[in-house]
Design goal:
Length: 311
């Protein structure tokens, strides 16, 4: 357990600066891309490029909100928020994803209206500068995607940014194709592209929101992590005779851990306390563990602790 904890601490120290680079690089790059993509959308009057431009505007908002929530979560008053601020980031992801879905729904409705009324049924003029601007944005997103991919397991912030860059690669590439198609081939390709892009964003963020809700609802930790806890608790101290119950579940991105250990009925109180407290301390320094609770008992025939009885 000490080796596992030390490896996690070293990895966190090594990744601290790269994670900051990923966050700040994404914020600065998204600001530049927002300007380029909104210029492309306005100058070309393309609904497909408008969809990618709106997405870039929200990218800036997401970066700022995630960064602010990450700092806020570390500085919350523990007297007012006893469980800590880890769930703030999860709530921020849900709110941001919901706003993204609402805005893209408006774009989809506008694009469908254009298709039904045949508004702009003439081929639009091909605007090369707007295509170049979006292509430059696509290239920069590819670089950020590769960089964040190598760090996505180190931070929930970076993982969200990685998902955002991954989505933008598809959006920008597809937006360029449909905008060019609407200028050179068929007029309806551009609004159709906007519908597809908007739907893709809604589906993608819908999946992300569902995963974030699962974290807030208390989804169980992976089976491998539970096995790790069981083994470490069972071999932690000779005074521990049995392991009654082990639970680990999400509370935001991190885990809450509950362990019920069994000791002899004549074990001195000081010893039961010291062993359980030491086990709790060891568990709480494990990576991704927010809090741990260790309960000591002398038999296993009772109803599991920490569970409300059903009448």
């Amino acid at each position: 357990m000490e080796e596992h904890t030390e490896d996690a601490r070293i990895e966190e120290d090594n990744n601290r600066i790269p994670v900051k680079i990923a966050v700040w690089a994404s914020m600065v790059t998204n600001l530049l891309l927002c300007i380029l993509q909104m210029y492309a959308a306005v100058s070309s009057s393309s609904l497909s490029l408008l969809s990618t431009g709106i997405d870039s505007v929200f990218d800036i908002g997401s970066n700022v909100v995630l960064y602010w929530l990450h700092r806020k979560a570390k500085k919350l008053d523990v007297n007012k928020w006893p469980v800590g601020g880890a769930r703030l980031e999860t709530i921020g992801n849900i709110v941001y994803g919901s706003l993204m879905g609402a805005v893209n729904l408006v774009v989809i409705v506008e694009s469908i209206r254009a298709l039904v009324t045949h508004e702009g049924s003439d081929l639009q003029a091909f605007h090369l500068p707007s295509i170049i601007a979006v292509a430059a944005a696509l290239f920069m997103k590819i670089l950020l995607f590769i960089y964040c991919f190598s760090l996505k397991k180190s931070s929930s912030q970076v993982e969200i940014l990685w998902e955002d860059h991954r989505n933008d690669i598809f959006l920008n590439g597809f937006g360029i194709l449909m905008s060019c198609g609407g200028s050179k081939l068929r007029w309806w390709l551009d609004p159709t592209g906007a519908v597809i892009i908007g739907s893709g964003i809604i589906i993608s963020w819908g999946i992300t929101i569902y995963r974030q809700f699962c974290l807030l609802a208390g989804q169980s930790a992976p089976h491998e992590f539970l096995q790790f806890l069981i083994y470490k608790a069972a071999t932690f101290n000779d005074s521990i005779e049995k392991i009654d119950t082990v639970r680990a579940y999400h509370s935001g991105p991190s885990y809450f851990v509950e362990i019920d250990i069994v000791m002899k009925s004549d074990t001195p109180l000081w010893k039961a306390h010291d062993v359980s407290q030491s086990l709790q301390d060891r568990i709480e320094v494990l990576p991704n563990v927010e809090r741990a609770f260790v309960h000591v008992d002398h038999e296993t025939s009772h109803t599991p602790e920490h569970r409300k009885p059903i009448y």
